[in-house]
Design goal:
- The chain has helices spanning about 60-75, 85-105; strands spanning about 5, 10-15, 30-35, 40-45, 50, 55-60.
- It is of the alpha+beta class.
- The protein has a domain at about 5-75.
- The strands form two sheets. A four-stranded antiparallel β-sheet has the order 2-1-3-4, with no helix packed on it.
- It is elongated.
Length: about 110
């Protein structure tokens, strides 16, 4: 066994039951895992848990989860606050680019 997740209803799911991705995603309370330094370690108190490539478990809060998804996985893109003028400049450039792309694609066939 490499890791085991403990749920509030008393159930568990371990690496012997399936892959990390197969474990129930909700209500994970504690995770035990093999640790190269201490043999076994425990993570708890995190809002979210993820499995690292080396088998360690990382616990994260909302900000940590968002940071990991945006900066490590790259699967979500996040905006940021701009002044009205800054946003208008970006928006107007996108509108010009869209018009140029539409014009270069030729007529739409239906």
């Amino acid at each position: 066994m490499h890791w085991r997740i403990y749920y509030s209803d008393g159930s568990t799911f371990s690496s012997e039951d399936g892959a990390w991705e197969d474990a129930p995603g909700w209500d994970a309370q504690v995770v035990l895992f093999r640790d190269p330094d201490t043999k076994w370690a425990m993570r708890h108190g995190g809002d979210f848990f993820r499995l690292e490539g080396d088998g360690t478990i990382v616990q994260m809060d909302w900000v940590g989860l968002l940071d990991w998804v945006v900066n490590e996985l790259g699967i979500v893109k996040v905006g940021r606050m701009l002044t009205r003028d800054q946003f208008d400049g970006v928006y107007q450039q996108a509108k010009r680019d869209m018009a140029e792309l539409k014009a270069s694609d030729g007529p739409t066939v239906s």
